[in-house]
Amino acid sequence: MDSTVWIIIGIILVGAIVGGVFYYRKRSKEMFQMFEQMQEHVKQVPNQKRQSFTLLMFRESVRASKSKTPVSQSRFNDPKILDAQLVQMSSILKDRSKVTDKQMKQALQMYDSYIAWQKKKNKTS
Length: 125
Known about the structure:
Number of helices: 5
Largest sheet: none
Number of strands: 0
Radius of gyration: 20 Å
Number of domains: 1
Helix content: over 70%
């Protein structure tokens, strides 16, 4: 092979690596901003319901990102529906083996990342 081909391959490889690093940093920065917002919202919820509420918000976030239609806010305004969803989230947190829905699994991964971020933030503070 000619040396110019190797140079072109090297430039493409370096460009892909640099692009990947920038994408990862941007994505993690956006996630940390979302975690900051979530922490502010969770402060308004009673202590008994914080974990369930956090998981519910992550589930709705995943659902909204996957859906092409806007998510209706009416279910958050009805206390009966909200309480039923919080009970459902609490049962999911107690036994994660029942979860088969892909969106719920993603929400649980986000929840775990949020808990780890929160512990790391509290440790450094």
